[in-house]
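**Protein of interest**
===
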Amino acid sequence: MTALAQAADGVHSCAALDSLPPELLIEIFVLCTTRADPLAPLNLGLVSSLWRRVVQSSPRIWQHIYLDDHSTITSSHAQAAIWTRQSAPLWFDVHLHATQSSIVLPLLSPFLPLMDRWRHFAMTGKREEFVDLSGSLPTCIDPLVIAIEDPDQLEPHEHVTFTSAAPPWLTMNVWVAELPKAPSLVPLRFTSIVMSEHSLAIHTQPRSILEFLSACPQLEAFFFTGWQHDDEILSAPLPVARLPALQTLHIRSTCGTRSILSFIDAPRLTELYLAQLNVDFEFANSDYFQEDGDSDDEANDFSRSQSSDRATGMGLRQLILRSNPPLRILDMDWSDMRTKDFKFAFSRLGTLEQFYIVASDMSDKVVELLRPFAPAPNEQARVRLPRLKCLELSNCNELSGAVLLDVFSERVRFTDGLPAWEANTLREVMIADCNGFKPQHAELLRKDLGDRLKLG
């Protein structure tokens, strides 16, 4: 390209090239676009008006896109926009030279909506790979899998950006030391994202998670697995991640539960899974938040995980207040709340159909919340969680068998007689490894529940 441009400086050389048929000139220009001169099409168009017309009218000249992480994100996105527009409707190849793994997703984000035209992806630098993407569709690249880990621990030969277990579906895999911020990304169209912390040396904070999620407006399912390091010391409010399509949320093994739940706006959320959130130490940020409900639990119930109980409960409160989600499933596995938080949630989750909880220190006061009650004297009795169909209590050893028997018997006798439009009745109750629930309690409860009672 350099030699060609220099030759074009001479009048006779330029005139000689201008005399070539346009088809041959296009072939020459295609050969000029290499990693040595990634902006060759733009430079060629500056030589003469004829060359500019040829360059602007030929999609073939724009089919190879060379990017590297030495350019700014803004300039790389601008280049991607020009090249993909000028090469349409033909396929294009992306050649990426990246020395930092965290920059891969921002640089590739402009091309993801154009998978039906993206033919080949080649990468050099931090690792080398070549992937044939021909035949892929933008709607078939899902999920995005993000591994947060120390870049010094990466084994380049074990990592492939695009994988496919069931063509035409593609999984995109990225490895980052820190999550990219929303301004560095063209909005991502993934409907499922799986994010996991793999390094004890890197602390991914809720702020960076929320900022990243702000670039994912079509997200329907989000899975996050962390490890239990302290949340950041907050000196400024956290951003709100607005996820209008989110339906499923999994949060596992993190101390950032309160921040994540409190600052996600998910008005369509139907399934919430909380796992391995209980810890027996005090959170560093426990005094930062002072919101309605932050006071000590008036029930004074026993708990081995007071700080995480408060964080989980307050996070769920804020999620309900902000989004009023139509939750159908709430699954809490080694994740707990205070009695006052259960009462808050049970009084507002009018669409909940399935509630599962494992290894909770909940007391009989929480179970009592499921008993039919009259809001005021002379008012008709009702039940909290009126759509509840399936209930599982596992390894909840602070519960007494007598209260479980009394509350569930009274509830099913009451709801069995209600019309379907008013409330559901329990269809399955699983009680497993709850030490206070004895065989004699099960025998008596089965008189009201029959085969609906399951024992583990």
